[in-house]
Specification:
CATH architecture of one domain: 3-layer Sandwich
Largest sheet: 5 strands, antiparallel
Shape: globular
CATH topology of one domain: Rieske Iron-sulfur Protein
CATH class of one domain: Mainly Beta
Number of helices: 6
Low-confidence stretches: 1-41
Radius of gyration: 20 Å
Mean pLDDT: 90
């Protein structure tokens, strides 16, 4: 039933956007960010045997870091799920009329500038090409993997990239493309997997899925992505009704999911110094706080109730509460802090200050202070396991 549902959704999206306006030209290049070494050229594959179309692409398909047989067409053509290239933002007073407090948003903050990207909008577009505090960024969301990831769009020697959707999937995850080289990029890993830039990785930036309520409470001057996108979409509705409850293999996922957890179990993942760990929501929920170390770096993982799923009911605002997570370095101004949950409130033992899921002290001696966020991801387990088979699954015995 799930594959049939997604095929229908993708067909509708492709049809509705067939006459979408062309994307604007890329903005002038600011100072570029470092990039990795490109992989050696491989031989040209037999394109006639692939499960996706190469017609109209300028992509160099002879360069790839993954088997091209891993890629499948998700249904729509290039940018058939249209990215947002000229995002508009509104104040909380303006957004309160259409965005409910429990709805999930991607929270992103940079150099004092904070923005929220509601999943009721991102679920229909998947990519926002934005600029925050002077940095070109891509805010991305793959509904099929439940992955919300922010990237720096700059590459040394290439410039600023504009990202779009290829219409293809790999392991059920969004495959993006860039407007400079038409290389194809894996959203879950930030790696160019096909084309001239194959082997290059984008720089991850900290971002979290939290409730609109928590975002507003933490960032008083924060701005919300507007629903005035230039496209007609039923924002607020979920085109993937019941996807949270898929019991068999996720849409267009090949192979056998990692058996350590159910495929659709939500996890928060952290990778530091070449090591990675996954923390299941079901283990976080009764604890509220997990103290751990990844790659010899101490971290603290928070969980708080009050955030709706974007992939449950037809109305996102009416969907079930799945909670939200945050991951931080448990150090403030050189002082190590130890956290615990007391009757549902996260506090540090050293000062008794209360903290929210975005790492801000909301009461007590440290009120107003914020912890340094660690880059992390919220995923369905099948995606976390397939893109990092060596990932450690946290168990209570690890404490």
């Amino acid at each position: 039933m799930a594959p049939r549902l997604h095929g229908f959704v993708f067909a509708l999206v492709a049809l509705a956007t067939a006459c979408a306006p062309a994307p604007p030209p890329a903005p002038p290049d600011p100072s570029p960010a470092p990039r990795a070494t490109i992989v050696p050229t491989t031989t040209m594959p037999d394109l006639s045997r692939l499960r996706f179309s190469t017609i109209g692409w300028k992509t160099d398909f002879s360069r790839h870091t993954v088997p091209l047989d891993d890629l499948d067409s998700g249904g729509p053509p290039r940018d058939g799920i249209p990215p947002i290239d000229q995002p508009r933002f509104v104040t909380p007073a303006e957004a309160d009329g259409w965005l409910k407090d429990s709805e999930p948003v991607i929270a992103f903050a940079l150099q004092g500038e904070a923005r929220a990207y509601p999943l009721q909008v991102l679920i229909w577009h998947e990519i926002v090409n934005d600029e925050v505090a002077g940095m070109p960024v891509a805010i991305t969301f793959c509904p099929l993997c439940n992955t919300a990831i922010a990237f720096d769009r700059r590459l040394e020697g290439v410039g600023t990239l504009r990202f779009g959707t290829t219409g293809n999937l790999r392991h059920s995850d969004l495959v993006m493309w860039d407007d400079r080289t038409e290389s194809w990029w894996q959203q879950a890993t930030g790696e160019a997997i096909v084309g001239q830039l194959a082997g290059t990785r984008l720089r991850f930036l900290p971002a979290s899925i939290v409730s609109y309520r928590d975002f507003k409470a933490t960032f008083a001057s924060g701005r919300m992505l507007s629903r005035e996108t230039g496209y007609a979409r039923p924002y607020g509705s979920n085109p993937y009704v019941g996807y949270d409850n898929v019991k068999d293999s996720p849409f267009l996922f090949k192979g056998t999911p990692d058996p350590r957890l159910p495929p659709m179990e939500r996890v928060v993942t952290v990778e530091l110094n070449g090591q990675a760990a996954a923390y299941p929501f079901r283990l976080l929920q009764p604890r509220g706080v997990i103290l751990d170390s990844v790659g010899s770096v101490p971290i603290v993982v928070f969980w708080a109730r009050g955030t709706s799923s974007a992939l449950d009911q037809a109305s996102i605002a009416n969907s079930r509460d799945i909670g939200a997570t945050g991951v931080f370095r448990p150090v403030l101004e050189g002082r190590a802090l130890t956290f615990e949950s007391r009757q549902g409130t996260i506090v540090d033992r050293e000062t008794g200050s209360a903290w929210n899921v975005l790492g801000q002290a909301t009461a007590g001696p440290l009120q107003g202070q914020r912890l340094e966020p660690a880059i992390h991801g919220n995923h369905f387990w099948f995606a976390a396991g397939v893109f990092n088979p060596a990932i450690r699954v946290w168990r209570p015995s690890d404490s």
